[in-house]
Amino acid sequence: MADLRALRGILRLCALLAGLVTIGGPALLAAQSRPDSFASVVSDLVTANRILAAEGILDGLGHVSVRKPGDPSRFLLARSIAPELVTADDILEYAADGEPLDAKGRDSYRERSIHSEIYRARPDVQAIVHCHTPSLIPFAASDVPMRAMYHMAAFVADGVPIFDIRKAAGVTDLLVKDAPLGRALAKTLGTKSALLMRGHGAVIIANSLPNVVGRSVYLDLNARAQLQAIQLGGRLTYVEADEAKLRMSDPNEYSRAWDLWKRKVATGR
Amino acid sequence: MADLRALRGILRLCALLAGLVTIGGPALLAAQSRPDSFASVVSDLVTANRILAAEGILDGLGHVSVRKPGDPSRFLLARSIAPELVTADDILEYAADGEPLDAKGRDSYRERSIHSEIYRARPDVQAIVHCHTPSLIPFAASDVPMRAMYHMAAFVADGVPIFDIRKAAGVTDLLVKDAPLGRALAKTLGTKSALLMRGHGAVIIANSLPNVVGRSVYLDLNARAQLQAIQLGGRLTYVEADEAKLRMSDPNEYSRAWDLWKRKVATGR
Amino acid sequence: MADLRALRGILRLCALLAGLVTIGGPALLAAQSRPDSFASVVSDLVTANRILAAEGILDGLGHVSVRKPGDPSRFLLARSIAPELVTADDILEYAADGEPLDAKGRDSYRERSIHSEIYRARPDVQAIVHCHTPSLIPFAASDVPMRAMYHMAAFVADGVPIFDIRKAAGVTDLLVKDAPLGRALAKTLGTKSALLMRGHGAVIIANSLPNVVGRSVYLDLNARAQLQAIQLGGRLTYVEADEAKLRMSDPNEYSRAWDLWKRKVATGR
Amino acid sequence: MADLRALRGILRLCALLAGLVTIGGPALLAAQSRPDSFASVVSDLVTANRILAAEGILDGLGHVSVRKPGDPSRFLLARSIAPELVTADDILEYAADGEPLDAKGRDSYRERSIHSEIYRARPDVQAIVHCHTPSLIPFAASDVPMRAMYHMAAFVADGVPIFDIRKAAGVTDLLVKDAPLGRALAKTLGTKSALLMRGHGAVIIANSLPNVVGRSVYLDLNARAQLQAIQLGGRLTYVEADEAKLRMSDPNEYSRAWDLWKRKVATGR
Questions:
Q1: pLDDT in tens, A30-78
Q2: Which of C60, C140, C144 sits opposite D233 (nearest CB)?
Q3: Smallest CA–CA distance from D150 into chain C, residue
């Protein structure tokens, strides 16, 4: 008799779960699929971290953030962990001043002011990458200006300024560790799409996570191409400003690449 | 009794299937093995996409096509998807004007005019690659001419012209998006085996899929070798035109490499 | 009856094992987790070998050592085997003179004097890497001085001397095979963080295994960046000495990278 | 009764097999372990093919051979297949004139005269690699002489001649396809350890398979280092001839590297 009761209890639990899945499942899927839903943006931010690590843009250091959907005064950024290891549980929410809302004892990236101050200064920016990509370090160390070598890096055409922390704050340990330094960096960025940091690395901005990931990958390829063109010599050509303007009006510029990269990190390749 | 009837029915079905396999199997295999059969060409086109992605010639962007076996006025090209992800179901058939015969709602590559207009202008061309291979971008940006550094890229020896879309059509977004632009590009290609696109990438043509894949891979290696030779300095030598001509009379030039690449993508390496 | 006795014996053995695990388990875990415990240092040394191989710093040759916890007159170094293959069983203990305490018939690295003589000359050094990293060979062959291109290689800022074995000992087979050669190399190193060996490779020192691994990886990236900056041209900037000093006061400089690398070799990626 | 007989027959067969394994097993193992046994040399030749492919020295083309143990007038070389795909069944035996003894309908590499003619001219040579390694193509195209940048490529120190097939035979398709061309190449090689082929690639020789594989890998690394040193500038140093001579007296120069590479290809890494 006890066995029958236990069996009936199990069957009732199964019915309840089935009901929940039937009603709640589509709700969950809908939540995932709404492009601006919180869960889907967190998922894309985790994906962005993994892609940037897989493509060699970020290694143990560097970070990527995105404005919070529905509340532009906040942004999402992982806790202080290597991008390759970021999971949804590592994503923290930050206020406009760069302070985490609920850190739960976890450390934040020391250079989060790069993100908070650019979001403050640039309402058009929706996603930011800070990286130490090897190909960009020589350009951060030279006064030879970056040029757009091909259409995939058209956003470089209006110039990539260099932020020199020494000019902003004298002798430092080279880290943009507070709001004043972040503001100085955002000021140097101005209206541009990317910035180099002398003796440090780079910052890339865009109007979406797919676009900031695409821009970061192609900024690396573009830098390599420019160095090689200089080594090749001859009379060099670049993407012209008017051509770059037309290219940048394409809203889906990096979408096919994003789809590929997203699928590759999902399947662990 | 009902059970016996069901069993007899199943046995009859098995006999029918066995017969079909016995008769139809070899027919299917023969279809696959005939070098010009439609199914085997579609399979090779999928393989070519995967090889070019694996070898770093194509990434999220770029594409490869082949003339339709038995109907040279048509060609096969994947729908708009990253080459690495192409499957047989993604292959569409295109008419001579670059329009898909039955898209089934799927998008086509915007630059398919590169393929359609070259097939029109060059009856000898059986397969075409359009790529943004990183090593080619510097050469597309410089007036230093490409040279054949070794026998594997002998097809470079008679020259690699540069197509500048600005000369053809003024200010554009750099994409060869329509037939007039495709015709201008095909005109620049002339009788050559490859062409560079200023601020964009390259196009490679050949008389078969294995050869266009081989040429694309070795064009990349040759470009790197030429840049390094220039950096090395000294008095440089190249493959001479008469040597190149003899090399290109070898019909199996890239076959051993194709066999290796084909097997590697099949086994997921 | 015999069966019952056997069963009772088995049950007693299980109880004994359970007791041992209950008492001994936490003791073992505590041993692993104490940062300076012998077992955890041996484990970290194996990990360091694997990371340096995975990151391309060491290949079939080269080695990494660490001072023995609790006895600074001794150090730990693998027997003569490729770093990628090192396991805990391959770690040997060495005396201050570079001789193994209990080789058990296994061969030692011929160039262990690099380690023994630096440990003798530099009480501050806790870990040493000797490598033939490809990017460092050109710098070992040139009198162009290494410079710190970015914050991740700040330790380069006070200079990287070149040890020329010919100046120390005339004609040799280029290997630092004995104590006098090790002493000459340690003398050239002086108080610096890294040294180049003409016609051979490099040596990197640090105050911990994570830091010597981090320094070795970023010395490679820094060398590549410096060469590229020279190729790029223009007016070049570097990390200044005062900036470098502030950077090097950060005790956790390479810890996030170490955590990532450690996890990757543990999971076989 | 029939069952009992069958069972007895099976038991007798087992006893026979056990006997064969007991007696023959050690004999087989001894055959594998004798360094010069035919089976172990074939196995090492397969391994050498796989290593050279994994290390980027050979791709779809190129080949490696070894003199036949016990009969120096013969040599072993795979049939015409990509090195990465070579198995023991692909290894053919060749006579001194470069003709296969029993091809069983399989094609031979067209350039086997490189091997046959060097074996004829150089009794000291036990193994030969012919490759198109990308880093060597610029050196094959320039009159800047190769130099030994570090101890791992000491064998380069006495010079690397360039074989120009045009000087030997006028206009060709650049392949060393017959004995006269092989003899011309062997003559250019002289007593050296490696040779470059203008517009083609390189040939490396050694006194064993491990050493020809080690030399081929480090020739590639050395070429990259030399190019980078030239780009770096400054006053350059090299391995001196007397130092190189001492290095080359080390019989185990590449053995630790060979052990690592062998284990990696065996485990599919």
A1: 444 455 699 999 999 999 999 999 999 999 999 999 999 999 999 999 9
A2: C144
A3: C199
First-residue to last-residue Cα distance in chain D: 55
Three-class DSSP category at C131: strand
How much of chain A is helix, strand and coil, in % rounded to 5?
50, 15, 35
Pick B235's closest partner by Cβ from D85, D138, D143: D143
Strand order in the sheet with C91-94: C91-94, C71-78, C63-68, C127-131, C201-206, C194-197, C162-163
What are residue A78's phi and psi, to 5 degrees?
-70, 155
Cβ of A225 and B60 within 8 Å? no
One of D55, D84, D99, D111 is an active-site residue; which one? D111
Q: Which of D256, D212, D180 has the alpha carbon at shortest distance from D63?
A: D212
Q: List, as one string, the DSSP characters of A27-46.
A: HHHHHHHSTT-HHHHHHHHH
Interfacial B residues in 105-164 facing D (CB < 8 Å): 148-152, 154
Cβ contacts (< 8 Å) between C249 and chain A: which residues? Answer: 173
- The contacts of residue C224 (CB under 8 Å, 6+ apart) are A134, C135
Contact status of C256 with chain A (Cβ, < 8 Å): yes
- Please tell me the number of Cα atoms within 13 Å of B176 on its side-chain side: 33
Q: What is the pTM of this model?
A: 0.89
Instruction: Identify the closest residue of chain C to D239 by CA–CA distance.
Output: C199
**DSSP code, position D244:** H
Give the containing element (helix H, strand E) for B71: strand B71-78
A238 touches chain B (CB under 8 A): yes
Residue B34: count other Cβ atoms within 10 Å of its Cβ: 13
Bridge partners, residue D162, by sequence? D196
pLDDT tens series, chain D, 269 aa: 556 676 676 667 655 655 555 555 555 544 444 556 999 999 999 999 999 999 999 999 999 999 999 999 999 999 999 999 999 999 999 999 999 999 999 999 999 999 999 999 999 999 999 999 999 999 999 999 999 999 999 999 999 999 999 999 999 999 999 999 999 999 999 999 999 999 999 999 999 999 999 999 999 999 999 999 999 999 999 999 999 999 999 877 899 999 999 999 998 76
**Residues B84, B93, B111, B243: which is the catalytic one?**
B111
pLDDT exceeds 70 at position A115: yes
Task: Tell me the nearest-neighbour CA distance from D159 into chain C, angstroms.
Answer: 16
**Average pLDDT score over residue span C106-119:** 98
In angstroms, the separation between the Cα of residue A249 and the nearest Cα of chain B is 9
Cα–Cα nearest to D63, from D103, D14, D116, D111: D111
Q: Given a cut of 70, is residue C149 above it in pLDDT?
A: yes
pLDDT digits (tens, 9 = 90+) for B150-194: 999 999 999 999 999 999 999 999 999 999 999 999 999 999 999
C-alpha to C-alpha distance for D99 and D96, rounded to whole angstroms? 7
Nearest-CA distance C153 → chain A (Å): 10
The catalytic site residues of C sit at 111
C-alpha span between A177 and C100 (Å, rounded): 47
Contact D81 B256 (CB under 8 A): yes
Give me the phi and psi of C159, to 5 degrees please. Answer: 105, 145
Of A137, A144, A171, the CB nearest to C149: A137
pLDDT for res A120: 98
A111 annotated active-site: yes
**C-alpha dihedral, B76 to B82 to B84 to B89, nearest 10°:** -50
**Contacts with B199 from chain A: Cβ below 8 Å:** 148-151, 237-239, 243
The secondary structure element, H or E, covering residue D162 is: strand D162-163
**Closest by Cα among D98, D195, D65, B149 to D184:** D195
Give the Å distances, CA to CA, from B17 to B11, B14, B21, B101, B191: 10, 5, 6, 34, 52
